[in-house]
Amino acid sequence: MAKIRMMNMMFYGFQGVYEYEKEQGAKLNVDVEMVTRDDKACDTDRIEDGAIDAAAVYPLIEDTVEETKVNLLMTLAAKTGDRILKKFPQVVEVTTRVRKHAVLIHGPLDYVEVEVTRRA
User: Fold this and answer.
1) In what order do the strands lie in the sheet with 3-13?
2) Which domains does the chain have, with CATH numbers?
3) DSSP code of 36?
4) Which residues form the Dihydroneopterin aldolase/epimerase domain (predicted)?
């Protein structure tokens, strides 16, 4: 197996429990870690032998984050992982982390982050 990480992608999404979050949106940072079925591509150096093309995964993540209207960040993270697993059969496990900086918490903090792992 091999792991491919796409770190600190920045998107604008409209997820949240409160109406203002759904209307105004907020900046979200997303990390995705994908685990491949095997590591054959490491030996053959051929993408068709199970490697992951990050450039092909990015638009799927972008579309999911920017177009999925849900209340919870954990639901967004799960849907992102599910879509990756469905489109890329060489991926057997996906961990998605979503960070939201603009949260209605009265106290100092950088962000709220959720992490969800999905398996094929």
Assistant:
1) 3-13, 26-36, 91-100, 112-119
2) 3-119 (3.30.1130.10)
3) E
4) 4-118
- Claim: this prediction has a pTM higher than 0.85: yes
Residue 107 CB neighbour total at 10 angstroms: 4
Per-residue pLDDT tens for 41-73?
999 999 888 899 999 999 999 999 999 999 999
Given a contact cutoff of 8 angstroms between Cβ atoms, the answer to whether 83 and 66 are in contact is: no
Please write down the long-range contacts of 103-111, taking CB distance under 8 Å and 24 or more positions apart.
104/18, 111/29
Mean pLDDT of 84-110: 92
Q: Per-residue pLDDT for 104 more than 80? A: no
